[in-house]
Amino acid sequence: MAVGEYSFPSMPALTGVRLATTSAGIKKPGRQDLVLIELAEGTRTAGVFTRNAFCAAPVTLCREYLKQSRPRFLVINSGNANACTGERGRRDAIATSSAVARLASVMTEQVLPFSTGVIGEPLPLKKIEGALPSAYEALSDNGWEAAAKAIMTTDTRPKGFTGTVEHEGNTVTVNGIAKGAGMIRPNMGTMLAYIATDADIAQTVLEDLCKEAANRSFNRITIDGDTSTNDACVLMATGTSAAPLIEKPVGELYEKVRALVIEAHEYLAKCIVADGEGATKFVTLEISGGANDDECLQVGYAVAHSPLIKTALFACDPNWGRIVAAVGYAGVSGLDPSKVCIQLNDTVIVENGARAESYTEEQGQAVMDGEEIAIRIHLGRGDARQRLWTTDLSHEYVRINADYRS
């Protein structure tokens, strides 16, 4: 179950990136569950990772390796998170990187490992090591869709983005894939995202852009309020385009590339929400009029995480009192209800601390019957604004997570 129509884009080759998938039989025999991504020598890489204290062994290693060298390979397995696996988990993650390094004649520290799947189970290292040679031999520049499918867990569809910008006769391309459907909340969620560009971007600029793009996208989505142990968002710049080096975060080329990279992140983030476990609604939360960004986010997440609101969304029930209650308990100090305005799409439901005189139940019902809904909340306190994306909470969400390990 997913919201809206979607088809995976036709992804062009991106010079400097090759991908391959294979089956290691990690969780289900025959399923494509192992991905290898090769990066051209000289590629610069940046990453944003989960803040969960129980972060998985591959997350810890990726953070370390990014400080030590320029990555040449990424190896990703689905079906097993290699999280909460102690010292063995770290050894297994290192061994996975080392296996790739031996095949490619690079340093272990140049291979970033990633895992997603069930927490607490030892990584089936022998299966992965046995499957890696076939993945290495299969590397090609047209493996984006296969890779997007192989990293899926409870996702119902692969998620991809491609786009280009022109600058002084030169084309810059951005390709990206992501996975995620549940255990999604900022900092980050059970999600992996790999976004590559052939732009030539200085390391510090790339790192800042990676953080900015993640904060505006993957750190603004929530399915169920849970933060995973394995999240990672990786931004890679191969520098293989003929466009000049972006040395500083200024100038026309930088602004074009920045806009496209952020667009890629936001699009993939919204794809995750639309494919939320059991989702039947795609909900945009627009919080404006805050004294600062933090209180806008407080209100936004109070609404997005309310089980009562999420189940009302699933039921197509315009029970707007639940939204009012969430705004009220969000913890905004000194909030004046008489200045708060709440809308469903463009229908005003609350103003001046009470139900809008123009509001009718029929108007609310018409909005809630749609698949895509905007909840707009104006706090009347300042100029800050924030936007988030979330879903409803359905019977199917319970079924998926009750059956996840079976």
Main features:
single chain, 406 residues, alpha+beta, L-amino peptidase D-ALA esterase/amidase, Ubiquitin-like (UB roll), 2 domains, six-stranded mixed beta sheet, five-stranded mixed beta sheet
Share of helical residues:
25-40%
Query: How much is the radius of gyration in Å?
Result: 22 Å
Taken in chain order, the helices and strands follow as EEEHEHEHHEEEHEHEHHHEEEHEEH
Proportion of residues in extended strands? 15-25%
Distance between the termini: 19 Å
Oligomer: single chain
Give me the CATH superfamily of the largest domain.
L-amino peptidase D-ALA esterase/amidase
Low-pLDDT regions: none
Shape: globular
Major β-sheet profile: 6 strands, mixed
Spatially, the strands of the biggest sheet line up as: 13-12-11-14-10-15
The CATH architecture of the largest domain can be given as: 4-Layer Sandwich
- Can you identify the CATH class of the largest domain? Alpha Beta
Overall pLDDT confidence = 92
Tally of DSSP β-strands: 15
Number of domains: 2
Helix count from the secondary structure assignment: 11
* Backbone structural class: alpha+beta
CATH fold assignment of the largest domain? L-amino peptidase D-ALA esterase/amidase
